[in-house]
Amino acid sequence: KKYFVEIPPNPSASRDWYGSTAQVVVNGQSAGFIVSELRRVDVTKFLRDGENKVSVIIYGTPKNLLGPHHAGQMRGSAWPSAFQRAPVHQPSGASYDTIGYGLFEPFVLFLWDK
Fold first, then answer.
1. pTM
2. Could you tell me what percentage of the chain is helix, strand and coil, using 3-state DSSP and rounding each to the nearest 5?
3. How many whole angstroms from its chain centre is CA 94?
């Protein structure tokens, strides 16, 4: 028997989580990271009898902190040439392009009994 934490896909939403990595923490210990389409982490050895605390932490990138904050088409583009295509005048903060990182659907703890 093995227990997994999974961020299940949500076919009715455009995405269920967004970030660069997702860390699974069980009872204060890092159980692993979700970094690709394999959306689950084996947490068996971190669980104990009784109550357990399980959490998923989503980590973003420095894009919101460092930019570029212009031209929404440049998402994922943060190399030097992206900054050279900046607007002539500094845009207002309300027009900055920032990314909402997070877990948009609940994660699942499940038993794999095979």
1. 0.76
2. 15, 30, 55
3. 24
